[in-house]
Amino acid sequence: MTVLIIGGNGFLGAELVRQAVSAGLHPAATFHSRPGDDGRATWHHLNLRDPIRLEKVLDTVAPAVLINASSGGADWAVTAEGGLRLAQAAAGRSIRLVHVSSDAVFSGTGRDRYIESCLPDPLTPYGAAKAAAETAVRLLYPDAAVARTSLIIGHGRSEHERLVHALAAGTLQGALFTDDIRCPVHVTDLAAALWEITRSDAAGVFHLAGPDALSRYELGELIARRDGLDPARLPSARRSGTGLPGGLEVRLDSRTTQQRLRTRLRGAREFLSANSPGR
Q1: Strand (E) or helix (H) holding 97
Q2: 220 and 200, same structural domain?
Q3: DSSP line for 3-71
Q4: CA–CA separation, 203 vs 36, rounded Å?
Q5: Does the pLDDT of residue 188 top 90, yes or no?
Q6: Which of 69, 128, 134, 195 maximizes the CB count within 10 A of its CB?
Q7: What is the mean pLDDT of the segment spanning 151-180?
Q8: Are 13 and 137 part of one and the same domain?
């Protein structure tokens, strides 16, 4: 199976590359600014704004499978239009496509939990770009899989883990919000679940998030305890009233997806415990 991982030098992309190599594959992966650290993959420069370059990479790699784990943030040309270009190219070449999306497509208002059939109602430019990409993938390539996820944690290298360390050390000003709720997932669980979906012919929307709904502050406390830091050093605040955009309580319900998977998506309380294997 020839695999191309879009955004292979990102946090999730790097774990997808690592698991592919461990499974005996020789994956190809793309980067925008610099290649990833894993020399066992073949690296290709790609700017998703450039459709000609995309076609050249696809011609060179000739993948049977394409996983879009890129992160263009709120950049519409990368996140939304780039997702559309990938869907068009994958459909035209009959490439198996798994598109990674985000819980940012939801507003977090009027609903306790979001299941796979819930329609996006984003509040931020990033969420809107992700929702547009989802729509493009599902319309242009009904055989593709769209996998929504939440905060990705693991191995101390995630953005949130680095933030917790900086706040605890006092090298960064800020606070962790007590009213900003998400369902964190471990990067190894997420990547394994994505590979499981990729190897199947399953299509449609999947939710890949952990079962524990936690505030960013509660998550920070768990990270601090795991890493031997003093949770009391973590500043806290409420996000409501700050004017910051985005949903406050966005709980992805992954139970339906979990029933279809062998990979178990652990909750943050489990994978951040001191004795959790592979944490």
Answers
A1: strand 96-102
A2: no
A3: EEEETTTSHHHHHHHHHHHHTT---EEEESSS--S-TTSEEEE--TT-HHHHHHHHHHH--SEEEE---
A4: 29
A5: yes
A6: 69
A7: 95
A8: yes
Give Cα 55 distance to the centre of its chain: 24
Question: What is the number of structural domains in the chain?
Answer: 2
pTM: 0.95
Given its phi and psi angles, is residue 176 left (phi above 0), alpha (psi -120 to 50 degrees) or beta?
A: beta
Q: What's the pLDDT score for residue 276?
A: 58
Q: What is the C-alpha to C-alpha distance for residues 239 and 166, in angstroms, rounded to an integer?
A: 19
Q: Report whether pLDDT(278) > 70.
A: no
Residue 99 and residue 19 share a domain: yes
236 and 190 fall within a common domain: no
Q: How far apart are CA 137 and CA 160, in angstroms?
A: 29
Distance, CA of 183 to CA of 4 (rounded, Å): 28
Q: Average pLDDT of the chain?
A: 95
Q: Are 122 and 155 in contact (CB under 8 A)?
A: no
Residue 25 covered by a domain: yes
**What pLDDT, on the 0 to 100 scale, is given for residue 36?**
87
